[in-house]
Each structure stands twice: as structure tokens, then as C-alpha cells.
Specification:
alpha/beta; Arginase, Chain A
């Protein structure tokens, strides 16, 4: 089943990415796929009836980061993930039948149209930001159907601009504003100057889709004062990278406690989005790569802790850009895929 908004996957589409070994079953052989012969709402309902709990969705775009004066390459994050995830062992520690590998949002035309645009030209920058709005519409449409089916989306790839359509879809489906906790050196609460990867949360808050917001690991020197002021006005809060890792005023675990408390606690009857900008992780190939970030283990712990909250409704892993790896695309695909897979497994094992 393919439509204008969504390209679904079937097992046969992914065989080229899978390794086989006698006596072993890999996740790619044990996951669920949607029925290609029925409309999406019915296909999602069928998957849920068969025991699916999670729906994995790719967003192959990099117009959001480029519209924010960043580097491209986030369109390959989901493919990097698949190459590693499908080959993980399906064993007693992960319930593969609970995972539906849905497919990817169809953004080929948007990517193609935006490929020749440059953010250094004002008219082209405007066109890039208009393209991000098109991405918003398609992601919102697909993800809302996942929420409406009672499944938990795991959204991988693309820029952090996709926090906005995720929060919009969650809010519309739940009938109330959502909260969000974001692991990110940047608050992504920049001015509403046209859509891009740096203002997903400020747009979501301004339009009533985001209520309470917290940033874990915010870097004190990587955020514009205007964005920090907008956060303060919106009653958002943060625990900074400097507090935890430089000044050692608190621990990473205590910072997560503070985040949960700020958004109202673990069992509040309000949906919560779990956000991870993978540029928070040292050495991760991303649009804005850093060697001054957190470890993969800390990022896994963050996901593990928040996945346990009954109100957690989605996991979003943004900004992986394999081509930005200093050793080239092949190394980037391997490393980004490994880290994205680790974060997804930290979520599904604990939610």
C-alpha cells in the first residue's frame, strides 16, 4: 500500500538489508508489517489486534536543517537505522511482534524540489521554509492516524523541525495540548520566522499544541537570548549541560527527575512526547556535530527513564546525518544506525 503521504514497507522490501545465519532469528524476520490491501486506518487497527504496540516511521528529509542554515544529510538517518535495527537478534529480551515497521513519509518530491535551493539567498530561503511546512502537513497526517489507532509512534530521521507536526498530531488526537521533554543542547524555541529545525517547539507552543516543555542538557552557550526569553515566557525550563557535566551541581539522573517534575509528574492525564536531538551525543554524525556532548549510554538512560512513564506517547529521534561523519558516508551509516537502534531498543524494552 502506498499513497501520496506514506510509503509502507513489506518484509520483501527489506531483505537486501538483512543478514541471515542458521539458528538465529533477526528482528527483520519477526516484526509486523501492515496489510497492503486495506486503507491505513484499517491496516493499523489490524496490526494492533495482532499485538502491535509501536509503529516505526521514517521521515527522509533534510529541508528543516537546511532552512535553519544547517548542513544537509538528515534524509539518510532512517536508512542508517534500518541497516542496523533489522539485524538485531530477536530473542527473549525484545518482543518483536509488538513492533510494526510501518514505512516512511513520502517526501521524495519535497526533497527533489528543495535540493537546488540555498539558504544564503533570501528568496530561496523562503522557499526552503515553505517546503518545511509541506513536510509538517504530511507528517501530521500520517502520525495522527498512528495515534488514533492507539499505537505509539517511533519517528526516526529528518530534522528537529518534525517535533512540531508530532506535537500537533498528538494534541489533535488526544484533544488536549501535550507536554514534551527534549534531550538537546539547543532549545529549538527560536523566533517564528518561517518553519525550520530550530523553532518546532516555539511554533507548537504558540499554536496551542505544546503546553509544558523541558530541555535536558541545554548548552548555556549555544542558544540565542531571544529563544531563552521565549522559553521563559512560555514557562518552559531546562537542566543545562554545564550544571551536570562541568560544574557538577547535579547529576544526569537528578536532571531527568527535575524534567519529569516540571511537566507534572509520571502519571498526569496529559500526553507526553519524548524528544531526542541526536546532536546531543558526542561524535554522532549530525547536521551540527559535536565532541562536547553526552555519551550514548546517557542518551539510552534518558530514553529508558522516560519510556517508563505511562503518559509517554511517542519517541522522536531527530537530526542524524550519516554523511557528516568525518570518515565518510559508510562509517556514518554504520555509526548513526547503531546509535539510533540502541535508543529505539531502550524505548521498546521499557515502555
Amino acid at each position: 500500500m502506498s499513497n501520496f503521504m506514506l510509503q509502507t514497507y513489506q518484509a520483501v522490501d527489506l531483505q537486501r538489508l538483512q543478514s541471515q545465519r542458521a539458528g538465529e532469528t533477526r528482528l527483520g524476520q519477526a516484526l509486523q508489517f501492515v496489510n497492503p490491501d486495506v486503507a491505513l486506518p484499517a491496516a493499523l487497527a489490524e496490526a494492533r489486534a495482532r499485538g502491535a504496540k509501536f509503529a516505526i516511521l521514517g521521515v527522509p528529509e533534510d529541508v528543516g536543517p537546511r532552512a535553519n542554515f544547517g548542513n544537509g544529510g538528515a534524509d539518510l538517518g532512517f536508512q542508517a537505522f534500518l541497516g542496523r535495527f533489522l539485524n538485531v537478534q530477536a530473542n527473549q529480551f525484545v518482543r518483536a511482534s509488538e513492533i510494526l515497521l510501518l514505512g516512511e513519509v513520502n517526501l521524495h518530491d519535497v526533497q527533489q524540489k528543495a535540493s537546488s535551493l540555498s539558504s544564503s539567498q533570501s528568496d530561496q530561503l523562503e522557499a526552503l521554509r515553505a517546503s518545511v511546512s509541506t513536510v509538517d502537513e504530511r507528517v501530521t497526517s500520517v502520525v495522527k492516524q498512528i495515534f488514533d489507532a492507539g499505537l505509539t509512534p517511533i519517528v526516526i530521521g529528518g530534522g528537529h523541525n518534525n517535533s512540531y507536526p508530532l506535537l500537533k498530531a498528538l494534541s489533535l488526537s488526544a484533544g488536549k495540548a501535550a507536554d514534551a521533554i527534549n534531550l538537546d543542547p539547543h532549545c529549538d524555541f527560536r523566533l517564528k520566522e518561517g518553519r525550520h529545525s530550530g523553532n518546532g517547539f516555539s511554533y507548537a507552543q504558540a499554536e496551542g499544541f505544546l503546553d509544558t516543555y523541558f530541555v535536558m542538557g541545554l548548552h548555556e552557550l549555544k542558544n540565542a537570548q531571544s529563544a531563552l526569553d521565549q522559553m521563559a515566557a512560555a514557562n518552559a525550563s531546562f537542566c543545562s549541560y554545564q550544571e551536570v557535566f562541568i560544574r557538577r551541581e547535579t547529576t544526569f539522573a537528578s536532571g531527568i527527575d527535575k524534567a519529569i517534575e516540571h511537566v507534572g509528574g509520571p502519571s498526569l492525564d496529559k500526553p507526553l512526547g519524548i524528544e531526542v536531538d541526536t546532536d546531543s551525543i558526542s561524535g554522532m554524525p549530525v547536521s551540527a556535530m559535536t565532541n562536547c556532548g553526552i555519551s550514548v549510554a546517557d542518551a539510552e538512560y534518558y530514553v529508558h527513564r522516560l519510556a517508563q512513564l505511562p503518559r509517554a506517547r511517542y519517541l522522536h529521534l531527530a537530526e542524524a546525518a550519516p554523511g557528516q561523519h568525518p570518515a565518510g558516508l559508510k562509517a556514518g551509516m554504520s555509526e548513526a544506525g547503531q546509535i539510533l537502534t540502541a535508543l529505539v531498543l531502550a524505548f521498546v524494552q521499557n515502555h
